[in-house]
Design goal:
108 residues; 2 domains; 50% helix; 0% strand; extended
Length: 108
C-alpha cells in the first residue's frame, strides 16, 4: 500500500509540474525529432480549430459528464467505421468481434 501511495504522489507532482510550466516539458530549446512537435501540438490544442479542441471543463464538476457528448461521438464514429471493416475479415457479433465494438450509451 505504501508503494502505491508513493507512485500516486509522484504522479501528482509530475502533473502539477506540467501545469505550472504551461506544458513546457523540455529542459532545453534544442529539441530534435519526435519531441520537437509536442509543444506545437499543445499550442494548437489550446487554440482549437473547427475540428478539435479546446474543450472547456469546469474543474469543480466531474469531467466525465462534461466531456461525454464529445467522447460518445468519437466512439460512435469509430464503431461505425470499424464494424464493416472487421466484417470483411469474418468478424461478427459472437465470432471474433470485440464486445466493446458497440455504441456506448453512458459513461459508466
Amino acid at each position: 500500500m505504501e508503494q502505491l501511495i508513493r507512485i500516486d504522489q509522484k504522479a501528482i507532482i509530475k502533473n502539477e509540474a506540467m501545469f505550472e510550466s504551461n506544458f513546457d516539458a523540455f529542459r532545453s530549446n534544442a529539441m530534435k525529432g519526435y519531441p520537437s512537435g509536442l509543444q506545437n501540438f499543445i499550442n494548437n490544442m489550446k487554440r482549437g480549430s473547427s475540428t478539435s479542441g479546446p474543450i472547456d471543463v469546469d474543474l469543480t464538476k466531474p469531467a466525465v459528464h462534461q466531456l461525454w457528448n464529445t467522447v460518445k461521438g468519437i466512439i460512435s464514429f469509430g464503431t461505425r467505421i470499424m464494424q464493416p471493416f472487421l466484417k470483411l475479415f469474418g468478424s461478427e457479433v459472437g465470432n471474433g468481434l470485440s464486445p466493446f465494438a458497440v455504441d456506448i450509451e453512458t459513461p459508466g
